[in-house]
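Whether sequence alone determines local backbone shape is best considered at the level of individual chains. For completeness, the protein is quoted in full, as a sequence line and a line of structure tokens:
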Amino acid sequence: DGHLNNSLASPVQADVYFPRLIVPFCGHIKGGMRPGKKILVMGIVDLNPESFGISLTCGESEDPPADVAIELKAVFTERQFVRNSCIAGEWGEEQSSIPYFPFIPDQPFRVEILCEHPRFRIFVDGHQLFDFYHRIETLSAIDTIKINGDLQLTKLG
């Protein structure tokens, strides 16, 4: 999508339509999630990372905290890519088994979160890494993406 790098647009106009990808990032998922919808997160891991996280939430509320449909957290010290959800302030059972740890310091990555009817499918650099079964029934309520931690964002889609 060449619109992001259109140097003819005034900066003010560009920021309204394409907020800069600054971490921590919070963005709106138009129409919420539904089966067949895919979220793409592309970025570069920091040089000396501890962790970074990608969350899909039901709104942006901090108090009370918005329900978290899925939180993906890459933890470099333990080489884990853990996922969990938080509903009505209660965190569920954390899942952490993965066939391999896909993230490398100072290297680019591509995470795709594909929403299917019973689950999210998570792909990293084109390889399916794991599934996470929905714990929130109303997929359309999942309308916010939050990204934080030791990474630079290069593209969201």
Observations:
- The CA atoms of residues 122 and 128 lie 6 Å apart.
- The longest helix spans residues 11-17.
